[in-house]
Amino acid sequence: ISFCTFMPKLAENYTEDTWLKLRDAVGAIQNSTSIKYNLEELYQAVENLCSYKVSPTLYKQLRQVCEDHVQAQIHQFFLNIELTESLDNLSFLKRMNRCWQDHCRQTIMIRSIFLFLDRTYVLQNSLLPSIWDTGLELFRTHIVSDSAVQKRTVDGILEQIELERSGETIDRSLLRSLLGMLSDLQVYKDSFEERFLTETNRLYAAEGQRLMQERDVPEYLHHVARRLEEENDRIMSYLDQSTQKPLVSCVEKQLLGEHMTAILQKGLSILLDGNRVTELTLLYLLFSKVKGGLLTLLQFWRDYIKSFGGEIVCSPEKDKDMVQDLLDFKDKMDNVAQSCFTRNEGFINAMKEAFETFINKRPNKPAELIAKYVDSKLRAGNKEATEEELERILDKIMIIFRFIHECGAAFTSKLEGMFKDMELSKDIMIQFKQYIQNQSEPSNIELTVNILTMGYWPSYIPMEVHLPPEMVKLQEVFKLFYLGKHSGRKLQWQPTLGHAVLKGRGKKELQVSLFQTLVLLMFNEGEEFSIEEIRTATGIEEGELKRTLQSLACGKARVLNKNPRGKDVEDGDRFNFNNDFKHKLFRIKINQIQMKETVEEQVSTTERVFQDRQYQIDAAVVRIMKMRKTLSHNLLVSELYNQLKFPVKPGDLKKRIESLIDRDYMERDKETPNQYHYVA
């Protein structure tokens, strides 16, 4: 280094040998050769020079020497275009990285020698860059800012990333070093990131279009998740952290944002139909990352529920299973909302809205079938489920029931009364069991009684049957117990609702109706009976008896043999106990054959529903007339349709208006009969 120009100005005790040492040391560092002198001695020499007020000259000369060296490097390695063009991109990147690493190592070594200069003179002059920053500035100015070098470097990096995205293994440490170089030199964003994001956008736009055509939705969702994971891994491995947000946004936009509607149209119903919990969870997670994603998903989710539920409700051929299908569907959607959609309140509210919409598409029928379903479950009691299971089922039914628009206060009151009866019956039976234990002659029959309040429950046709003496005696014990606590009440036994568990030979138990019980107990007293003998002994009505015998002798579990054989029971048939009866279960349930509902019964049920609703109609008419005072018939009907939440026929509205006129709540205009006036 040429320090000779200012050497005569130094104090006499410094000789030319000191400057030769410094020159040799810096030259050795730049040429990657060993330093002949002690580093501590060199450091002390710089400190002494600074103390003699030559720091400005020392700093200026050091910068010049470093710049000369960098210029020599650019001439030697990069401006020789013929040489660099002969290298492939990967070899060029490695050469570039080696040049950068050498430069960093040299700058650090030079700074360690001139550290005193860096921490005193440079630090005190805020406009001067540090020795390290000077090294970066020189490398950026003379090497990286060269257009050919910069383009070749960025091209090579982008090529390596493209190879990795296509599945090949690359040298990540090389990219980490080179991208770190661009970041340190403060050219990362302008020289690399803009081109990188443009290429990424182009790649994923094409990939999204292609894969949406080639793959099904579950496979596509997993691919998107994998791509996002890969890009995040690149950020952690070699990209600058500042790239994370625009990079992830680019992938999400091209693979998700541009295809949201197509993904949901193509695959949401498939995922929901198949209860694909994993993919539904992934779908929600991915759509939550995209602007407007969850809102779009919510709309499709709501539409799916309306469509699927509408098919359940509006298919008369499936009425038999409607309520159970609704319960299963609600359970399934609840599970999706909780497990896959993170209990998002918006999705839960959308589900409720959708259920409320589709269940009211078909007037009256869902309410009618729900009432019958509740009745059948409560009749069966613990024959089909434990008390806890039954209670859960009834709770779920009530949730479905509440979606129906105003079935009428009386109807709702009846249903709630049915639930209340079942709760009170549990308490009564606890007290009755304690009462039985205190009796002098406890029964070997365990009796369970449900107390049903008349008016809440459907009307049952009274039927007198001949019970065994043990049952009659136990009935009287319960009657004495119950009326002792509730004087003034009347108990009416309903044999059509009774059921029992019978212990048979071979350690088997039969779960049967009371009618089936009475028939089977006869075979403890004899081997064979005619249908007439069974009717006389049990007192069961003829039609009910034939269905009972059919269930015992013609069903899957044939406890009785019928002679002659056949599917139907006829007068003159004879029955004997099936001694060859076998079954794999310990407790065998023999279902009673149900009588089909007649058209008259369906009409009667519909009429009862309307009777419950008529009070709602009356109240709405009076409320409207009280506010408007005078109104034409057509306007009144229009207002009623706006206010009533359940479907109603114009003829039914007319009947209610006439009834209110008869009861002096309103009157017709004397000159215009089609106009009404409110009567205060």
How are strands sequenced across the largest beta sheet?
1-2-6
Radius of gyration: 46 Å
Question: Proportion of β residues?
Answer: 5-15%
Stretches with pLDDT under 50, minimum 5 residues: 1-15
The number of strands is 9
Largest sheet: 3 strands, mixed
Average pLDDT score: 85
N-to-C CA distance? 115 Å
Give the proportion of residues in helices: 55-70%
User: In one word, what is the shape?
Assistant: elongated
State the helix count.
27
Structural class: mainly alpha
Which tags fit this structure?
680 residues, mainly alpha, three-stranded mixed β-sheet, three-stranded antiparallel β-sheet, 27 helices, disordered N terminus
What this model shows, in words?
This protein is mainly alpha-helical. It contains 27 helices and nine strands. A three-stranded mixed sheet has the order 1-2-6. The chain has a three-stranded antiparallel sheet with strand order 3-5-4. A three-stranded antiparallel sheet has the order 7-9-8. A hairpin with a 6-residue loop joins strand 8 (666-668) and strand 9. Helix 3 (55-78) runs parallel beside helix 7 (131-144) and helix 15 packs antiparallel against helix 16 (322-340). It is elongated, with a radius of gyration of 46 Å. 24% of the residues are buried. The model is unreliable at 1-15 (pLDDT under 50).
